[in-house]
Amino acid sequence: GQQVMQIPQYQHVQEGEDFTTYCNSSTTLSNIQWYKQRPGGHPVFLIQLVKSGEVKKQKRLTFQFGEAKKNSSLHITATQTTDVGTYFCAISDNQGGKLIFGQGTELSVKP
Amino acid sequence: DAGVIQSPRHEVTEMGQEVTLRCKPISGHNSLFWYRQTMMRGLELLIYFNNNVPIDDSGMPEDRFSAKMPNASFSTLKIQPSEPRDSAVYFCASSFNQLQPQHFGDGTRLSIL
Fold first, then answer.
1. Tens-digit pLDDT profile for residues B60-76
2. Distance CA A32, CA A49 (A)
């Protein structure tokens, strides 16, 4: 079945450092969604990207959709301890029937 | 507005017992999803419904698992008999349709002893 690769699996940063997680697909995507799950919490929707080359910002978070619509990235500028959690990307399957979640990138931030 | 409501929040039971997890989706959402999350396997989709009809249950691990959605405001996930390897966090999520952003409940943390 269709899959999405997400890297890295873990990232440990010092507070104030930047962080980036990447999602890659072998097929062209119709759209991609990003979610954040805090430790002990549930996934929370952050954003959806639809257009080729699209860039969206939410405060210190920058989301990008590749020109070929096969990859996406989430970049956090100057991380804070509140950014701790696991970040997931999610794509639509080939038949457009459901979302497929990536493996997630777990971010830890050392104060 | 109320979000997705799941119950119970925690469940500890002995293997062989029947376990029933419950979910109330957001009113007006037409799609409902059941996920299982473990450290080893990550977030797995078990089954999803559109307009109360099961569409894809390919993620249901085996016949011990069953899910129902008798109406638009209620769904259950049942495990019978339960086994220790079923221990996980089970999430219910809902959305306007299967491709729209999903809203997750707080999950049920299930421990089978």
1. 988 999 999 999 999 99
2. 5
B63 close to B80: Cβ distance less than 8 angstroms: no
Residues 6+ apart with CB under 8 A from A19: A11, A13, A75, A76, A79, A83, A107
Q: Tens digits of per-residue pLDDT, A76-96?
A: 999 999 999 999 999 987 666
Residue of A nearest to B108 (CA): A42
Q: In this complex, is the C-beta atom of A88 within 8 Å of any C-beta atom belonging to chain B?
A: yes
Q: Which helix (H) or strand (E) holds A101?
A: strand A99-101
Q: In what order do the strands lie in the sheet with B5-7?
A: B5-7, B19-24, B74-79, B65-71
Distance from C-alpha of B49 to C-alpha of A47, rounded to nearest angstrom: 23
Q: Is the dihedral of CA B36, B7, B51, B60 positive or negative?
A: positive
Nearest CA in chain A to B106: A42
